[in-house]
Amino acid sequence: MSAKRSPGTRSGRRPGNVDTRAAILDAARARFAEAGFDKTSIRAVAADAQVDPALVHHYFGTKQQLFAAVVEFPVDPEPVLSIIDSAPLDELGSAIVRAVIGVWDSPAGPGIVAMGRSVLTGDADLARTFFLKVVLERVRARIARPDDDGHARVSLAVAQMLGVFVARKVICVEPLASMPLDAVVAAVGPSMQRYLTGQIDASPTT
Amino acid sequence: MSAKRSPGTRSGRRPGNVDTRAAILDAARARFAEAGFDKTSIRAVAADAQVDPALVHHYFGTKQQLFAAVVEFPVDPEPVLSIIDSAPLDELGSAIVRAVIGVWDSPAGPGIVAMGRSVLTGDADLARTFFLKVVLERVRARIARPDDDGHARVSLAVAQMLGVFVARKVICVEPLASMPLDAVVAAVGPSMQRYLTGQIDASPTT
């Protein structure tokens, strides 16, 4: 479901129109900023905006997608996030590299780069939260094990992808900046895989 | 040799004083900006500043160190760069991670982070050039082989370190941001080693 999907039904409380969509976004922006991502519910946003929760879902999809709309994330993150859930665990590293770089190199790329720069300069706290809460939590949930909650692994994996992002899209370190996608996947995928599921501490290999 | 070392001798052409040092820096800044790092020589900078080349070396050391002074690099890069030359090739990845993060976590760290932010926002082209020309070329020369000039490897390694820098020092992704140095070395060192000397393409392992 895209954040820009036009309403096909109407709510009981407010007509489904542009003002309603804007009211939901305003309410969500205030809630997320005040209470944070975890403590904000679709129900609370709907109450603030005086609409039915179903209308929030109808316009924006999941809480993650509502958040993406609030931070004006330039692309629907759901297709990429769904890859995190569907890729085989032993191919997750390469799958993430391929999906994420595919988005950077898409028509939405310039918007992502602009947002990335804002995050890097500290001008986009909500977008930063979006990365850390929504995206990373989804990855962490996928790789968590009884003896390893995955937090350290995810922070290492995000460092890897941030570095490829900065080198490829922000300061343009060649030849990585121009490297074909397949070559980047071959080079970076195994490192990502190691961070996500391989040995990352100094203990002897068993 | 530090850029702040006070002169112990005097040149024949100009007295070795604060003005001379400033004149050399001005000449170097103009040369580096106009001709780039590679095409700028100590001799040319000395001629522009109307001093003897030996005085430039005396004040600033190598061309790399002169460049570091021009971009107001907050720490003498030579101790880190010398590690690139002296570490065993099969331990280069961990050695670089340990040395570089050691500098970030040192008293010079805040200055490095400030400069890093400027590079990320495109406000520090000379500093960017410093990274790409001086630092990376030194690494590339170390790992180059007859069948592999090392350019792709270095760009992947710099992406890895940029990512750790951004995650640890700029947007503070936990737990990586607070991870002890030894743990970061254990986690990131093997990835760096792979980028520098391991298999990075998709061809079958031999």
From TrEMBL, chains A, B:
Keywords: DNA-binding
HTH tetR-type domain span: 18-78
Protein name, as recorded: TetR family transcriptional regulator
Keyword DNA-binding annotated: yes
InterPro entries in the record: Homeodomain-like_sf (IPR009057), HTH-type_TetR-like_transc_reg (IPR050109), HTH_TetR (IPR001647), Tet_transcr_reg_TetR-rel_C_sf (IPR036271), TetR_C_16 (IPR041678)
DNA-binding region: 41-60
Gene source species: Nocardia caishijiensis
One Pfam short name: TetR_C_16
Residues making up the signal peptide according to the UniProt record: none
